[in-house]
């Protein structure tokens, strides 16, 4: 009897589970994002408790802000997006159409730039593209004049491509791998040559993913801040640089106004993209992916030779932009003040671990915290993202608005979110005489999940949209609740997207800095990026050593996520 | 199980998909919804299954309202046009899927139930096959087996044959009908193919623009269509518009169409008789209430005559037309005539190899029909 | 405002080891929520247990991260250990990421400060605090027995709230081996505009970096309120590089991107510690001046242990503590009574003349100056 009632309760719960998760998502977003952000944005429209447009109007009528800051920010974001596409799309082509050793591993590692603290990238880039960097030494070795890349717009753009080309590559690879070979074969049988078949059949199926990669790249580089100052300089200041400056100077009205304008631009772009994505309904699944070929052709025709040369050239560029900077970082971690080899930086980490005071950052707890938060984020963000994707592919009134609102965590300045978290959560809110505060490990996980779940949604939603709705309806008519249908039928069919989203979620969590340090309750809940920042000193050694640990731990996690995730999907 | 739809409407924004549809389906009945695409038949089915909730009105299973009851709790089996087999599950797992949520009816094990169902659809031994490796007809049978496995009270078939070729369709249709009557499961079948509807159904509802045009047994609908739409949609028909000229004492009605005057038998259909009486009484009564029982002189009137009721050389209601084209269809030949700008179709029984010689294009032909074979519609 | 300090790694390790031994019980966080619960309510006070009930009181001290947690050495651990060994009290460090802004923000939101004391104030911060807050965040330090030992010239708070505990000088650090190996930094601000120094100077964003801000103030002092923007326009023309923070620019400097960087005049102390080539760490005081940036401490107006806070401030001013702070924070002592170790004095250079803006001069001007600079320099 009781067993029956337990089953009934479980079933009722199961029937409500999606609604429940959606409601929880809304609550988490409200508490950890919308409310905190609102406390800051209010400063843009409220002066002495009065509603006003004055702060925003002041900026919109300032030629300096409009032209020198906002327009310039958009311009560099646009160029950065182009560069990220140029660098990322060939990688997607290689990953999806070729077979070579280490392809899977390499693909897993493409996420690494996502977690790299900007100072690490700056160290790597200075060592690679600087006056005495690897590039210039290589150029002079072959008798070419040196390139002055640092402290220019170009340096910022390359660094942005370093961060975002892997994003483009990952998203587009997933789409390319799910192009049904039969569609290409059909086009070929109808008389299309390979190029034509690509343009007419493959490209339209890739465009939504290219669109998402480009949109996200633009939004991220539009809000770029530390890397701009580290590799470009203040003369290339972006909106976010000024948001930070104004916040630091406690000039909240101006900071909030700038951030509001920045957000509106990003949100608008997001909305435009989402509209476009919704209009795309590519058919078919990945039953028959396109065949892969070897990087080294079996016979050397002029065409295949050209292709191989192209791939080799691309590999060289990738080596310069990705491999050399990361290698430089690793090298920096074992280079002493006198330029010789040393393990002192790692010895420092060991010693700090052994003898550090409790209010100091220790490497091992930082690693464990990062992993624990990442695991927590995975557990929270994946269901959130999947449920939002389910909502996104459903038709209902106001869907467009929900879509955009759910993507907003991408579009709002991290500095604003940080300040909002401080005001709204750390200081607490008075509710009936008691101060409600939200801090600690769970708050950190929730904040990470807020930043991470849109990645899950964006990876999963397009795949959901491709699924035949009747599959779910069949399952439900057979007795499956909506949740069961999702778990039994839909998730296995969109599993690649879930794994891709999960990898991003982990990366976001591991790389997150701003919210973590604000919500952390002392050194006990600090993470690897915070340790890197704390270990920065006059010589960057200890920080680079910690940074290398960060890379190592992250690489290992991604291999696990991708491998384990991939295998789980096959079960 | 007895299914009732009580004034069900479904609107999407300002578009009305269903406009006060009322139906009732008896236990064990094979009931078909037929109509052109966009008529609302699939929406009706989705409201029954619970995939959509009606904007107004009620769906009842055995008298119990289904409002707020989730699809998974309705005990309904659904088969879709595109089969919707779960591509990542084997044939056996597909059929067994519904048994995850309920015990196999009949008390056997799950595997036994799967084998039983696959046997029923002539796919014994296909358990481990991949759905992708099956032909369209096989996939459709798997879908049927899957829908039937949990022992549903109601089986909903949404255009299940339309993706198959004609021969396969015929065979599968018979198989579905056989299985349905063996199991006695109440079935609602959606199709746009009127011949399919007439072939398998106990009763048929014709839908047009979200409304029920007529409900009845196949023969009744065929011979006594109540509206012009039904007359034209079910099978071929010659529909003529005219004006009542007189009502002679001898009975019947004289109707002028163009220059000709036809004599029709009195009345067109008898209410409260045959199949139309059972499920759709309320609706039929409601519709008939406002119409004059007898057309008076001067009233305009529409009537129809089936092609097979038009006879070459018939004495009554005789007109002369010109042959436009002929179409040999085996047992009959369809002859299309031009009669003063109106097209008439005549079905002529085939009289052997040389018989079509008289119907060459351009020749004139006298045809007529018996007063009782014409049927007045709205 | 974060300052990175370095000293002999071994020494720091030793101190930390001692520290770990006596503070192994955990519970160091000053925000006292039990971790695990997402939402919880806490009562108004976060510093618990004053002398009531026989428990030793807790002194909560806010400061910037590297004061307690720099990779090589920082005064924090030593101060905690020494203070606790002498006073029957627990010292808890609080290191919010946004430094003193965190406490200003708390006050703005009407939340109690949650700490007794802040260590690491400078004149610019006081100006910001007084501009933003109507009510006092800090109270004047009264009754300190060692107040008169502080170098009179370093007192930067006319209201007597902040008591200096160390000071640093911002100068240029340059690399003699750069280029052909005979690089010499210019001696004056005007010299920086010479074409031979095109692209030769790395500075920091004054809106986010202490050294950057000090350097900007130094140019304002040298060129005047009316002349500094023109001067900076010329600097920009001469390709000065203004990077985000001190780490960015020092990294670029170390990699030979430019021969000069704005940094601290104690740079050679670090260089000596890690055995670097002194030729690469030459100090230049432009116009024979260094911009002095004294750091002070003050106790919060709502401190729950004001007496203990005063005792701590007196403790900080002791000669031996002053010497330790100076060495561990790689700064100069603020008192006249402190005695520095010889090797430290050898490498830590002081300018012939120290310049600094008084609180009164900065008040009502600081943000305008910085703002105008930012708008000038960020013009594309």
From TrEMBL, chain A:
Record-level GO cellular component terms: plasma membrane
Task: List, alphabetically, the Gene3D superfamilies matched.
Answer: MetI-like
Tell whether Ion transport is among the UniProt keywords.
no
Tell me if Cell inner membrane is a UniProt keyword of this record: yes
Q: Which UniProt keywords apply?
A: Cell inner membrane, Cell membrane, Membrane, Transmembrane, Transmembrane helix, Transport
Principal location class: membrane
Q: Where is the ABC transmembrane type-1 domain?
A: 70-273, 367-561
Output the InterPro entries linked to this UniProt entry: MetI-like, MetI-like_sf
The topology of this chain with respect to the membrane is:
Multi-pass membrane protein
Q: Name one GO biological process term.
A: transmembrane transport
**Which spans are transmembrane here?**
17-37, 77-96, 108-129, 149-172, 206-231, 251-274, 311-334, 371-392, 404-426, 438-456, 491-511, 543-561
Cellular localization per UniProt: Cell inner membrane; Cell membrane
The entry assigns this protein to a family as follows: Belongs to the binding-protein-dependent transport system permease family.
The entry's protein name is ABC transporter permease
Originating organism:
Haloferax gibbonsii (strain ATCC 33959 / DSM 4427 / JCM 8863 / NBRC 102184 / NCIMB 2188 / Ma 2.38)
From TrEMBL, chain B:
Q: Where is the composition biased (Basic and acidic residues)?
A: 280-297
Q: Which SUPFAM superfamilies match?
A: MOP-like, P-loop containing nucleoside triphosphate hydrolases
Presence of keyword Cell membrane: no
One cellular-component annotation, GO: ATP-binding cassette (ABC) transporter complex
Q: Which residues form the signal peptide?
A: none
What are the boundaries of the region Disordered? Answer: 272-298
InterPro entries recorded? AAA+_ATPase, ABC_SmlMolc_Importer, ABC_transporter-like_ATP-bd, ABC_transporter-like_CS, Mo/tungstate-bd_C_term_dom, P-loop_NTPase, Transp-assoc_OB_typ2
- Does this entry carry the keyword Transmembrane? no
Q: Which EC class heads this enzyme's classification? A: translocase
What's the EC number here? 7.3.2.6
Record's subcellular location: Cell membrane
Which keywords belong to this entry?
Answer: ATP-binding, Molybdenum, Nucleotide-binding, Transport
Entry superkingdom: Archaea
According to its UniProt record, which reaction does this protein catalyse?
A: tungstate(in) + ATP + H2O = tungstate(out) + ADP + phosphate + H(+)
Which PANTHER family does the annotation name?
A: SPERMIDINE/PUTRESCINE IMPORT ATP-BINDING PROTEIN POTA, SPERMIDINE_PUTRESCINE IMPORT ATP-BINDING PROTEIN POTA
What family is this protein classified in?
Belongs to the ABC transporter superfamily. Sulfate/tungstate importer (TC 3.A.1.6) family.
Main function: Part of the ABC transporter complex WtpABC involved in molybdate/tungstate import. Responsible for energy coupling to the transport system.
Record-given protein name = Molybdate/tungstate import ATP-binding protein WtpC
UniProtKB/TrEMBL annotation, chain C:
Q: Which GO terms describe its molecular function?
A: thiamine binding
Q: Which organism is it from?
A: Haloferax gibbonsii (strain ATCC 33959 / DSM 4427 / JCM 8863 / NBRC 102184 / NCIMB 2188 / Ma 2.38)
Per UniProt, the keywords (alphabetical) are: Signal
User: What ranges does the record give for the region Disordered, renumbered to this chain?
Assistant: 24-57
Domain of life according to the entry = Archaea
Which Pfam family is one of those matched by this entry? SBP_bac_6
InterPro entries referenced in this protein's UniProt entry, alphabetically: TAT_signal (IPR006311), ThiB-like (IPR005948)
Tell me the GO BP annotations in alphabetical order. Answer: thiamine transport
Q: Where is the composition biased (Low complexity)?
A: 24-55
Q: What is this protein called?
A: ABC transporter substrate-binding protein
